[in-house]
Amino acid sequence: MVNKNKIYDTIFWVSMITMIVWVILKIAGVINTPPLLESVPTIGTIFAAGAFYQKMSDVDKRLIRVETKAEKIETNVHILDKRLSIVENGIGKGPFNSRT
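Above: the chain sequence. Below: its structure as tokens.
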């Protein structure tokens, strides 16, 4: 199974590097493009924003799972605390452990 985070990271960084290189070459005068191709930074920004959104969406899903697991752990600790208090209160009060 392919790790989606690595794919999103790759798309994001390739988009960012492409935009930076294009801007540097454009400023240096190496690239003389027609107006149609000057949309490269816009397209790169769209891909970078999409990859960033997907990555943040995945982080949000993970946080929801962590919160759910934390709630389950809290419930289990509460139940164990009740059971422990029952055991602590019951020590020495049974018919075989009477202290008279």
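The two ends are 67 Å apart (CA to CA).
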